[in-house]
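Dear support,

Our group has been running a series of protein-ligand predictions, and this particular one with adenosine-5'-diphosphate is the one our PI (initials K.S.) wants archived with full inputs and outputs. We had some confusion internally about which version of the output was final, so please treat the block below as the authoritative record. The input we submitted was:
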Amino acid sequence: MLFLPEDVFDLCLDRAKKLMGSEKYNSWLSNACFRSFNDGVFTIGLDSEIRVNFVTHNYKTNLEELLREVSGDPEVSVVFTHLPETLSLGKVSNSSRHELFSNFLKSGYVFDRFIQGPNNRLAFATAYSVACEMGHSSSNPLFIYGGVGLGKTHLIQAIAHHVKTHHPNKTFCYISSEEFLTMFLRAMIPNKNNFMEMENFKDKFRNSHYLIMDDVQFLSNKETTQDLFFHLFNDLYLRGRQIIVTSDRPPHELEPLAERLISRFQSGMVVDIKPPMLETRLAILNQKLRDENIHLDNDVVFYLAETVKSNVRQLEGAVNLLAANIRIQNFVPTIDNVRSIITEYLGSSSRRLNPSSITSIVGEYFGINPNALKGKKRKREILIPRQVSMFLLRDLTNLSLEEIGDFFDRDHSTVLNAIKRVNCMISEDSFFKRKILDIRESLLG
Ligand code: ADP
Ligand code: MG
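Confirmed final output from the archive:
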């Protein structure tokens, strides 16, 4: 399966032809021609103004539905434009060829909008340097890790944006490991073109100068996919292509990812992003307030930066909430207003996402007294929920292995083992996996 925008559009045309019947199709859409894909919008050329009007009124909604289905993105839309005859004859500019379609880049995720601080300076500098010049052995592969909402995706998309604007002759492929998995599985679906599909799939990656993979931790447990990734990785690496991956944890915690992949990751540059400190939070906050066109007194801004501290996504969430309040009520909030809005906002997530609440919800699910989870008993009925609690604490909070260990009065290696154990059980037992997903959902509200 090919996922370039023009290919997605071609696939949609095929389906549209079947749905409309060839007569209607030939009258209206047979000359439709992919022009560009930007910010989720397909621009499609048609060879007359009349066709543009007719197709827009009659087929736009259906085509959008098809595009959403085929691309897997529920938000893509389509516009039609009149394309001069000469252009419509040939394939239109291939400017978007250098971008793998499976995940769209967010326009704001650029270097200029990434606020630097001591928590992310090294990650930023390295990301920026590989974006400017690829394949230096000291930072290839580049492995960036850190907790949720700390800017990993922003930073690696910034690399892609930079390459796109400054090195148009270089190709890149930006994909999350989950999408990689989905594409891989689709390419494996048996059909008479199976070999071709797989080769196409591999070619997409082989031809990239930059392979940028987000959230590589999701490859854990997927052995065949890991094998393929490993071979693609080596192939690109040996040809001096740049590989960049992110993960929510450092390489050595990625088990059960294959040892050889882990050591490949460790062989390049490994950098982390930590939660931002006050000054950096203030700077991020000010940028966000400017974006939202909100003016707040300095003491209010300071209060926000001081109070909302676990990650940047949470900080952005707080500003969005304030912005919504201001818009609805049409007033400039005082520090007291803000305090009550934010207390409520943080309360609703911290009530759920702290060690006591996580253990008590896990206890409830497994029918175990939460206090027993902190105790010493190693019976299976207690051991497993205890390990699940550790796993979820690592997954849903920014607590370190040590901090989680402290809560259970154990050391960090016990926590690490628990996380590995739960990962294994998730991959082996779908019933168990469902249960963990349920608990996770109820914690996330
Ligand atoms: P992650 O991938 O680490 O979970 P994201 O990259 O999705 O985190 O970041 C979450 C949000 O916070 C995004 O909207 C991102 O733009 C913003 N953000 C994170 N770090 C910074 C930063 N240093 N400067 C500006 N915005 C940031
Ligand atoms: Mg991310």
